[in-house]
Design brief:
The protein has helices at about 5-15, 45-55, 60-70, 110, 115-120, 140-150, 185-195, 210-220, 235-245, 250-260, 290-295, 305-310, 320-325, 335-340, 345-355, 360-390, 395-405, 415-425, 435-445, 450-465, 470-485; strands spanning about 15-20, 30, 35, 70-75, 80-90, 95-100, 125-130, 155-160, 175-180, 200-205, 225-230, 260-270, 280-285. It is globular, with a radius of gyration of 29 Å. Strands 9-8-10-11-7-12-13 form a seven-stranded mixed beta sheet, sandwiched between helices. The chain has three domains: about 5-100, 2-Layer Sandwich (Beta-Lactamase); about 110-315, P-loop containing nucleotide triphosphate hydrolases (Rossmann fold, 3-Layer(aba) Sandwich), CATH 3.40.50.300; about 360-485, Tetratricopeptide repeat domain (Serine Threonine Protein Phosphatase 5, Tetratricopeptide repeat). It is built from 21 helices and 13 strands. The protein is about 50% helix and about 20% strand. By secondary structure, it is an alpha/beta fold.
C-alpha cells in the first residue's frame, strides 16, 4: 500500500475532489469547492512528494517529471476510486494534484444534465463539444454520455484520453480506451489512426492543438460522432474561438465545415449548493439550421440572441439556468451572479425574478474601498520618492497625474496637481509631451479648461512631430473631453 493511499482514502470518504501536495506546506484538500489543509498532517518537503509519486507513477512518468518538470497519469486505489495525478515542479520543488475519479459513473439525473445532452447521445455523426474552465466537470459529463451510449446503442466507441479517467465496462458497445503516451504518442496520431479502426463514436479527451482540432472536424465530417472538450467559458464564443485558431486563409473553409458538422456545444460551471456539495450549471447551444447559417456567414456574434429564443430546441443560457437555480434556492444569488459570464444579462433576469441584488452593492463597495486603498498607497509611494528627489520630473508627473485624473474624488487635488505638473514641465523646458499632457489633465481638474486645451494641443503637436501618431490620436480624444468642459478620469 502506497503511503499516499491513506490521504486519498480520507479524501474520498470526505467527499473531496482534489488533494494538493506542495513543498513547504502540509497537504491540502478541496471539499465541495473549498480548499483547506488536511488536519494533523506535517509540512512536506520536495523529496517527500517525489518519493510519494515514485510509489504510484510508472517509471516513464517519473522520468518525464524529472526531465520535463510535469507529467500526468492515472492511479487506482482498489475498491476506493481512480485518481488523475498531475506531478509538476514549482519554485519550491515537486508538487502534485490528485483528482478523484469516481468508480461509479454518475447518471444523467445525478449530474442534472439537460435533456439536450441526451439527444446528442443519439446522433450518428457530427461534432459535440463540452467546454468550461478546468475543474468544471467536463470529463464527468463526457463519461456520463459514453455510459448512456454504452447502455442504449450497439456501437464501436474509441476514447483517446490523457490520462484515462473513467473506465468503461462494455455493455451493448465495444469500447477501446487509449491513453496518450502509453497506448499512443499523441491525440492527433490516435485520432488519425481511429479512422482505420471502424469506429462509430470517437471521444477525444481534449482538442489541445490545431492538428487535433482539424482531424476531429474531418472525422465528424466523414460520418462519425466525435465528442470532445475545449477550455472556453461559454457556448456562444466557442465556435469563434475554434475558427480563430486556424490561419486566416483557411477560416472560411473551417466555418463551412463547422456549419455542416457541429451539432452542439455544452458549457458548464460548478456552483456551491446552499445545503452543501456542488451542482453544475449548463449552457447549451444546439446547432439548428439558423445557427449553422450564422456560423457559415461569419455572424457568430448573433448566436447569443438565437440562444435566448431557442428553448424549444433545447437551448439554454447560463443566465437563465443560474437564475433558475437561485430562484429554487439550490444556490445563492451571490454565487449565481459570480458564476455568470454576462453580468448585465443576469442582473436583468434577477430583477424580473424578484431576486435581491443587495450583495452586489456590498461587494461593489468593498471592491471600491480596496481600489481606493491601492491608489492611495501608490500616491504615497510617489510622494515619498518626491521627498527624496524633489526635482525628478517623472515623479512630479506621477503625483500630478493621480491628483488630477484619479477616479476617486478623495485623492484628487487640482490646485496641487497643477503646481507639480508646472514644475515638471518647466524642468523639461515645456518640450516634453507627456508632462504637457499631465498639465492639461491637472488644469481640467481645476476647471481651467482653456489652459487644459492649450497644453493638450501642444502635446499633440510634439507627438506628431516625433511621428508618434497613436499617442497623438489618444490625446485628441482627451482634447474633445476638455472642449466639452469635462475633466479626464483614469478609469
Amino acid at each position: 500500500m502506497a503511503r499516499i493511499d491513506r490521504l486519498l482514502v480520507s479524501l474520498v470518504n470526505e467527499s473531496g475532489s482534489d488533494l494538493h501536495l506542495s513543498a513547504g506546506r502540509p497537504p491540502f484538500r478541496r471539499i465541495h469547492g473549498t480548499l483547506s489543509p488536511v488536519p494533523g498532517e506535517p509540512v512536506l518537503t520536495s523529496e517527500d512528494i517525489l518519493d510519494c509519486l515514485k510509489e504510484i507513477m510508472p517509471a516513464a512518468n517519473i522520468e518525464q517529471l524529472t526531465t520535463e518538470y510535469d507529467t500526468d497519469c492515472a492511479y487506482e486505489v482498489k475498491g476506493v476510486a481512480r485518481f488523475r495525478v498531475n506531478g509538476y515542479r514549482d519554485m519550491n520543488g515537486y508538487c502534485s494534484v490528485m483528482r478523484v475519479i469516481p468508480e461509479v459513473i454518475p447518471s444523467f439525473e445525478e449530474l442534472n444534465l439537460p435533456e439536450a445532452i441526451r439527444s446528442f447521445c443519439t446522433l450518428s455523426k457530427g461534432l459535440v463539444i463540452i467546454t468550461g474552465p478546468t475543474g468544471s466537470g467536463k470529463s464527468t459529463t463526457l463519461a456520463a454520455m459514453i455510459d448512456y451510449i454504452n447502455q442504449n446503442r450497439n456501437e464501436h466507441i474509441i476514447t483517446i484520453e490523457d490520462p484515462i479517467e473513467f473506465v468503461h465496462t462494455p455493455q451493448k458497445c465495444v469500447i477501446n480506451q487509449r491513453e496518450v503516451h502509453r497506448n499512443t504518442t499523441s491525440f492527433a496520431r490516435a485520432l488519425r489512426a481511429a479512422l482505420r479502426e471502424d469506429p462509430d463514436i470517437v471521444l477525444v479527451g481534449e482538442m489541445r492543438d490545431l492538428e487535433t482540432m482539424e482531424i476531429a472536424i474531418e472525422t465528424a465530417e466523414t460520418g462519425h460522432l466525435v465528442l470532445t472538450t475545449l477550455h472556453t467559458n461559454d457556448a456562444a464564443t466557442t465556435v469563434e474561438r475554434m475558427i480563430d485558431k486556424f490561419p486566416e486563409g483557411r477560416q472560411n473553409q473551417i466555418r463551412s465545415m463547422l456549419a455542416d458538422t457541429l451539432k452542439g456545444v455544452v458549457a458548464q460551471t460548478l456552483c456551491k449548493k446552499i445545503e452543501g456539495g456542488r451542482i453544475a450549471a449548463f449552457e447549451v447551444l444546439v446547432v439548428t439550421t439558423a445557427v449553422a447559417a450564422l456560423i457559415r456567414e461569419a455572424k457568430t456574434h448573433m448566436i447569443p440572441s438565437l440562444m435566448q429564443t431557442g428553448r424549444n430546441a433545447g437551448m439554454q443560457t447560463f443566465g437563465d439556468e443560474l437564475t433558475r437555480q437561485a430562484v429554487k434556492g439550490i444556490i445563492s444569488a451571490e454565487d449565481a451572479y459570480t458564476k455568470a459570464i454576462d453580468k448585465v444579462d443576469i442582473e436583468t433576469k434577477f430583477r424580473l425574478a424578484g431576486l435581491n441584488l443587495d450583495f452586489k452593492v456590498e461587494a461593489d463597495q468593498a471592491l471600491r474601498g480596496a481600489q481606493v486603498e491601492r491608489a492611495r498607497a501608490a500616491l504615497q509611494m510617489a510622494r515619498d520618492a518626491l521627498a527624496v528627489d524633489p526635482k525628478n520630473a517623472e515623479t512630479l508627473c506621477a503625483v500630478a497625474w493621480i491628483m488630477g485624473a484619479s477616479p476617486y474624488a478623495e485623492l484628487r487635488d487640482g490646485r496641487e496637481a497643477v503646481k507639480l505638473a508646472e514644475r515638471a514641465s518647466s524642468l523639461l523646458r515645456d518640450r516634453d509631451p507627456h508632462a504637457l499632457a499631465v498639465l492639461g489633465v491637472a488644469h481640467a481638474e481645476r476647471g481651467a479648461f482653456r489652459r487644459a486645451i492649450d497644453c493638450t494641443h501642444r502635446a499633440i503637436e510634439l507627438h506628431t512631430q516625433a511621428g508618434e501618431s497613436a499617442k497623438a490620436l489618444a490625446l485628441q480624444n482627451r482634447l474633445n473631453l476638455f472642449k466639452q468642459n469635462k475633466p479626464y478620469r483614469d478609469e
